[in-house]
From TrEMBL:
Domain of life: Bacteria
Protein name: Lipoprotein
PROSITE patterns, alphabetized: PROKAR_LIPOPROTEIN
């Protein structure tokens, strides 16, 4: 469990504005299946985020998904490093109502060998985020799935989610600081944080990730720049919710996630 400490106006932590899902699984109920001549099918909403480091600006892996009656459905196309896929809704077919697992696999782009895999329970009413983590230099890879958080808009604050993927081979906990004040203690590696709600119009904001025995990683002036979204439009800080990922190249990467 993360331990949150109180601090001044720069950031407010709240869970009342969010419905936050647990990772790695699906809903027990509400599976929306439609009888089909080939079996049962579920339209599953998935969004993939690629944080597999390959030593250059180009991605070295791609992500596929399949059911027990589906061939592989590619969720990512060739893309730049630390990019994200478009949100995709694909129909997955099953031969029985009682076994509706979707397998998600991370493949080496060149060899097509499986580097990591995981399963979710198909649920048409529950979108998922899928995160691919890894470093080809250490040959360490993993997949992390989490039910997509539901974000409620606010006139005063900006929702921010954080992931520490800076060390793919470890799940060592880190501490997160905002303007020098610790706001999260013990952020587990490669896991989505609880939501932070940051004032829209606060002054200069800097996030810093610290781990014992490791150099710190900073996100400087996180609210002062426009950020390019998937459709090549630009999103202002105060207009969106945000995902901040600390990656193996010792940088932080911000993505607007106000598309739901």
């Amino acid at each position: 469990m993360h331990n949150f400490r109180s601090f001044d106006i720069f950031v407010l932590l709240t869970t009342s504005l969010f419905l936050y899902g647990c990772g790695g699984g699906g809903s027990d109920g509400g599976v929306n299946v439609t009888p089909d001549i080939d079996g049962f099918k579920v339209q599953q909403d998935l969004h993939v985020f690629d944080y597999v480091y390959g030593g250059s600006d180009f991605s070295v892996t791609h992500v596929v998904a399949y059911s027990n009656e589906n061939s592989q459905q590619r969720l990512t196309e060739p893309h730049m490093l630390f990019s994200s896929s478009a949100r995709s809704t694909i129909s997955y077919y099953f031969d029985t109502l009682n076994n509706q697992e979707i397998t998600i696999a991370l493949l080496d782009r060149n060899t097509q060998l499986v580097k990591a895999s995981t399963q979710i329970i198909a649920d048409a009413e529950q979108p998922y985020w899928v995160f691919a983590f890894g470093d080809s230099n250490t040959n360490n890879y993993s997949l992390y799935t989490v039910q997509r958080p539901v974000v409620t808009q606010s006139e005063q604050t900006v929702p921010v989610f954080v992931i520490d993927a800076s060390t793919p081979s470890q799940n060592t906990a880190s501490d997160l600081y905002l303007n020098g004040t610790q706001i999260i203690q013990g952020l587990e590696g490669k896991t989505l944080s609880q939501p932070l709600t940051v004032p829209k119009y606060a002054g200069r904001l800097t996030l810093e990730l610290k781990r014992e025995g490791q150099p710190s990683i900073q996100c400087l002036n996180i609210q002062s720049t426009n950020y390019q979204a998937i459709d090549n439009t630009y999103v202002n800080w105060e207009e969106s919710a945000w995902l901040i990922v600390f990656s193996p190249d010792s940088h932080c990467h911000m993505k607007p996630i106000n598309w739901q």
